[in-house]
Design brief:
The structure is a single chain. By secondary structure, this protein is α/β, with parallel strands linked by helices. 39% of the residues lie in helices and 13% in strands. An 8-stranded mixed β-sheet has the order 2-9-8-7-6-3-4-5, sandwiched between helices. Helix 1 runs antiparallel to helix 13, helix 4 packs parallel to helix 5 and helix 7 packs parallel to helix 8. The longest helix is centred in the C-terminal third of the chain and has 29 residues. The chain is globular, with a radius of gyration of 23 Å. The two termini are 25 Å apart. The structure holds pyridoxal-5'-phosphate. Pyridoxal-5'-phosphate (PLP) binds next to helix 4.
C-alpha cells in the first residue's frame, strides 16, 4: 500500500509504472522524460483521432460497385427516377430491424444520419416540428438541449450552428444520470431535448440499461416543455464487438406504453456498415412528427438516392445478411480494441487512469487524473501521436475536470495502435508524475 502513495513530496514512492516498482518520483520522472525524448527523436506520425472505418472494413462492401448490373427496377419503382421520399420498402424494413421500430414511422435519407439530426433540430428551431407549436427560436427563452458527457462532438456542433444552448449531465455506466435529467426538464420549459447515443455510446461505449431506456421514453411527459425531443442517435445499433454484447431495449416498446412516440426521433445509418461516405441513413418517429418532418423536407428534395438503397439491399439481403456482415467488421475491429485495452491494463493502474471496456462501437474513453488531459495530449502531439483534442467530448470544448481522452482505434493498423499506445502510456505516466512533483 505504501507503494501506491502519491503526494507533493518529491521522494514519495510511486506506482505509476503499473508494475509496482519501488522507485522514487523524481527518478521516475527522469526515466519517463528520457523515454519521451526518445519517442520525440523517432519522428513518429501516428493517429488515434479517426473514428472511421479502416480500408479493410470498407473492402467488405466493395461488391456494392456494379452489384445491380443495370437492374434498377423493383416491382413498383424505377429507382433511377425521382420520387419516393420515404425510401424503398425493403430498406425501411431493414432499418426497422436495426432500430427495433415500426416501418410506418420510418423515412430513409441520404448518406448521413447527421444531416437528418441537423434537419430535425433545424425544423424544430426555425419551422416548428410539432403540430400547433411555435418554433423554438420564436419562443421567449433560448432553446437548450441536454448533452450527456462525455459525448459526441458533432452533436454539440449542431447545437452551436443552430443557436441552441447546451447543458451537460454526467454519463453513468448505465446511461445518463436520469435523476438530474428529470429534475432539470421538470422545471425549465426552455429545455427542449436531450441527445442520446444509447448503444455503444460515443464516447464511453456503454449501452443504456432497460430502466434508463424506459425513463427516457417517459421523459417527454415529465418535461415542462410540451415540444420536447428525445434525440435517439442509434449510430452503433448493430456494431457489437462481442457475441454476448448487451442488447439495447426498444425505446418504441416503452413509448407505446407512454404514448410519447411523437417526441422520440431515432436515427441510424450504414456509415460504419458499408461505405462511410456512400451509405444510407434513416429516421424514425411518431406519425404526427413524421408528417411535419416530411412537409419541411419536401421543400428541399424530391426524394433520396434510391439506386444506392437498392444496392444496399442487393449487398445485404435481409437483416440476417446484415448481421453476418457486421460479424466480419467485428473480426477486424475487436483485435484493435483488445490491443488498446491490453496496453492500458498492462501498464497503468486505476489510480493513474480509468477507462471503459466497450463491447461495441468505435471508441474507448479514458480519464486521466483531473487536470492532465490537455498536457497528455500536447505531449503526445510533440511525440508525433495525434489524439482527439482535450475537451472535444464536452459542449463548448470544456471538460471541467480536464481529464477525458477519446481513443479511436478503428482506423490505424495494429502496429500503429501499439506504437501510439506506447507513447500515450508514457505521456500519461509522465504527466501524472510531473503533477505529483508540482511540475505541471
Ligand atoms: N452519430 C454518432 C454517435 C457517431 O459517432 C457518428 C460518426 O462517428 C455519426 C452519428 C455520423 O453518422 P453519419 O455518418 O450517418 O452522418
Amino acid at each position: 500500500f505504501l507503494l501506491c502513495q502519491f503526494g507533493s513530496n518529491a521522494t514519495a514512492v510511486s506506482c505509476i509504472t503499473g508494475v509496482h516498482e519501488v522507485i522514487d518520483s523524481q527518478q521516475l520522472e527522469r526515466q519517463l522524460t528520457e523515454q519521451f525524448e526518445q519517442f520525440k527523436a523517432n519522428d513518429l506520425t501516428l493517429n488515434l483521432t479517426r473514428g472511421k472505418p479502416s480500408s479493410e472494413q470498407l473492402d467488405l462492401s466493395n461488391a456494392l460497385d456494379g452489384i445491380l448490373q443495370q437492374n434498377y427496377a423493383t416491382t413498383d419503382t424505377d429507382t433511377r427516377n425521382y420520387g419516393g421520399i420515404d425510401g424503398l420498402p425493403t430498406v425501411k424494413s431493414l432499418f426497422s430491424d436495426i432500430l427495433k421500430t415500426s416501418t410506418s414511422e420510418l423515412i430513409i435519407g441520404g448518406n448521413s444520419s447527421l444531416t437528418l439530426m441537423h434537419q430535425t433540430l433545424m425544423f424544430a428551431q426555425f419551422l416548428g416540428l410539432f403540430t400547433d407549436q411555435v418554433p423554438w427560436s420564436q419562443q421567449t427563452n433560448t432553446a437548450k438541449i441536454i448533452c450527456p458527457v462525455p459525448g459526441y462532438d458533432r452533436h454539440f456542433s449542431i447545437c452551436t450552428s443552430l443557436g441552441i444552448d447546451m447543458i451537460t449531465v454526467e454519463m453513468t455506466p448505465q446511461g445518463p444520470d436520469m435523476d438530474t435529467v428529470e429534475q432539470l426538464v421538470k422545471k425549465d420549459a426552455s429545455i427542449k431535448g436531450i441527445w442520446n447515443v444509447p448503444r455503444f455510446s460515443n464516447t464511453t461505449g456503454i449501452t443504456y440499461s432497460d430502466a434508463i431506456v424506459q425513463r427516457m421514453a417517459q421523459l417527454p411527459k415529465r418535461a415542462a416543455a410540451s415540444d420536447f425531443i428525445i434525440m435517439w442517435d442509434n449510430a452503433y445499433a448493430i456494431h457489437s464487438l462481442k457475441d454476448n454484447a448487451m442488447e439495447l431495449a426498444s425505446i418504441d416498446a416503452f413509448a407505446d406504453a407512454e404514448n410519447t412516440h411523437n417526441h422520440i426521433v431515432q436515427f441510424a445509418s450504414t456509415s460504419k456498415v458499408s461505405f462511410a461516405g456512400s451509405g444510407i441513413s434513416a429516421l424514425a418517429c411518431g406519425p404526427e412528427t413524421m408528417a411535419k418532418f416530411k412537409q419541411h423536407l419536401s421543400a428541399s428534395t424530391i426524394g433520396p438516392d434510391k439506386v444506392n438503397q437498392l444496392r444496399h439491399i442487393a449487398l445485404f439481403g435481409d437483416f440476417d445478411g446484415l448481421t453476418q456482415h457486421m460479424k466480419a467488421h467485428a473480426d477486424i475491429l475487436a483485435p484493435r480494441f483488445d490491443c488498446v485495452l491490453k496496453a492500458l491494463e498492462q501498464n497503468l493502474d486505476n489510480d493513474t487512469a480509468t477507462w471503459t471496456t466497450p463491447n461495441g462501437g468505435y471508441f474507448i474513453s479514458l480519464n486521466t487524473r483531473p487536470g492532465l488531459a490537455k498536457a497528455v495530449i500536447e505531449m503526445c502531439d510533440q511525440a508525433g501521436v495525434q489524439i482527439t483534442p482535450a475537451g472535444a467530448t464536452f459542449p463548448y470544448g470544456n471538460d471541467p475536470h480536464n481529464r477525458n481522452i477519446r481513443i479511436a482505434p478503428s482506423f490505424a493498423s495494429l502496429e500503429e495502435i501499439q506504437g501510439a499506445m506506447d507513447v500515450l502510456i508514457t505521456c500519461i505516466k509522465l504527466a501524472t508524475v510531473r503533477q505529483e512533483l508540482n511540475l505541471i
